[in-house]
Design a protein that fits this description.
Elements (H helix, E strand, L loop, with lengths): L1 E7 L1 H7 L19 E4 L15 E4 L20 E3 L6 H5 L2 H14 L7 E4 L7 H11 L2 E6 L4 H6 L4 E4 L5 H4 L3 E6 L3 H7 L3 E9 L6 H7 L2 E3 L7 H12 L7 E6 L3 H9 L6 E5 L2
Length: 278
C-alpha cells in the first residue's frame, strides 16, 4: 500500500534503541513504524475483498518492515477500511494505540459495564483512547493526568480526573476493578493498593511482578498488542459513530522523524504524534 501517514509510538524508539531485541526477532536493516493509513496500490495473488484504490488503516506486524516509508507491504488480515470521518493523519494515529487500549481493557482485563477502571496517563496516546473505550463499555472511568490536561480527560468522558501534581491517586481511590498502567515504575508500585481483591493490573510497559500480585490478592496481565483487522473495523465504526475520537497533537513531515522520536521519548505527550508521508 502507499503510506500517507504514520503514527509515532514509544515502541518505535525502543526498537530503534535495541531494547526489544531479546524478545522480538528482527531482520536488519529494518524500517520502523507500525501505525499507518494509506491507499492500496496492489493486491497479492489469492487476496479477496480488497482492491487497488481502497483507503485503509492498519497496525502491521511489528517483526516486519514498518511505515516510515512511501510504500509498505501489509497482510490483508491486518488492515481495515479507514474511518470515513478521519483524514489520513488522524487515522494513522489510531491503530496501535486503540488496539493496545482495546486488548488491555477488554481481552486481558475483561472490563465490564459497571466496573471501575483507573487509567494512568489518561491524556496520552493509549490513555486518551482507553478513557473513551472504557466509557463506551459502561465502566466508571478514573483518569490520572497533569493539571493542563485535566479538562481534556474530563471532556473525553472520565467520571473522575485526578491531577497527579495536586493529590495522590492512592489516597483517593479504593476497590478499583482494573488499573491500566502505561507508565510503570513508582506509579505501578503505588497502584496495587487501589485494587480490590481479585482485581487486575494490566501493564503495557512490562509484566508486573507476580509475587506482589499474590500479596495483594490481585491478578496481572501484560499483553503485547497484536494486529487485528476485526477489532480495527469495530474501532472505525465507533469513530464514525462519534463514540471515539483520536487526538493528534503534532503532525511532522517524515524528514523530521528524529524530532518526533525526541518528543515521544520525552514523555508527557498529549494524544498522538503523526508523520505525514504523502
Amino acid at each position: 500500500m502507499r503510506a500517507c501517514a504514520s503514527g509515532v509510538n514509544p515502541v518505535d524508539w525502543k526498537v530503534r534503541a535495541g531494547y526489544l531485541s531479546n524478545s522480538i526477532q528482527y531482520k536488519l536493516p529494518l524500517i520502523i513504524g507500525w501505525d499507518v493509513a494509506g491507499v492500496i496500490e496492489g493486491v497479492g495473488v489469492g487476496v479477496e475483498g480488497w482492491n487497488r484504490g481502497d483507503v485503509v488503516y492498519a497496525h502491521p506486524d511489528i517483526t516486519r518492515d514498518g511505515s516510515y516509508a512511501q510504500f509498505i507491504r501489509i497482510r490483508a488480515t491486518e488492515i481495515a477500511r479507514k474511518p470515513k470521518t478521519l483524514n489520513h493523519a488522524q487515522a494513522a494515529a489510531v491503530p496501535l494505540a486503540a488496539l493496545t487500549a482495546w486488548q488491555s481493557l477488554f481481552d486481558a482485563g475483561g472490563l465490564r459495564r459497571g466496573q471501575t477502571v483507573l487509567i494512568h496517563a489518561a491524556a496520552g496516546g493509549v490513555g486518551h483512547l482507553a478513557v473513551q473505550l472504557a466509557k463506551w463499555k459502561g465502566a466508571r472511568v478514573v483518569g490520572t493526568t497533569s493539571t493542563g490536561n485535566a479538562a481534556l480527560v474530563q471532556e473525553l468522558g472520565a467520571d473522575e480526573v485526578i491531577d497527579y501534581t495536586a493529590r495522590r491517586f492512592a489516597d483517593a481511590l479504593n476497590d478499583v476493578d482494573l488499573v491500566l498502567d502505561t507508565i510503570g515504575g513508582e506509579v505501578q508500585q503505588r497502584s496495587w493498593v487501589v485494587l480490590k481483591s481479585g482485581g487486575i493490573l494490566v501493564s503495557t510497559v512490562g509484566p508486573p511482578p507476580g509475587d506482589v500480585a499474590l500479596q495483594h490478592k490481585v491478578r496481572v496481565a501484560s499483553p503485547f498488542v497484536q494486529p487485528s483487522a476485526t477489532q480495527l473495523a469495530e474501532i472505525a465504526r465507533l469513530i464514525d459513530a462519534g463514540q471515539l475520537r483520536p487526538i493528534v497533537e503534532t503532525v511532522l513531515p517524515l524528514a523530521e522523524a528524529r524530532r518526533g522520536h525526541e518528543i515521544i521519548q520525552g514523555g508527557h505527550t498529549r494524544g498522538k504524534l503523526v508523520l505525514s508521508i504523502n
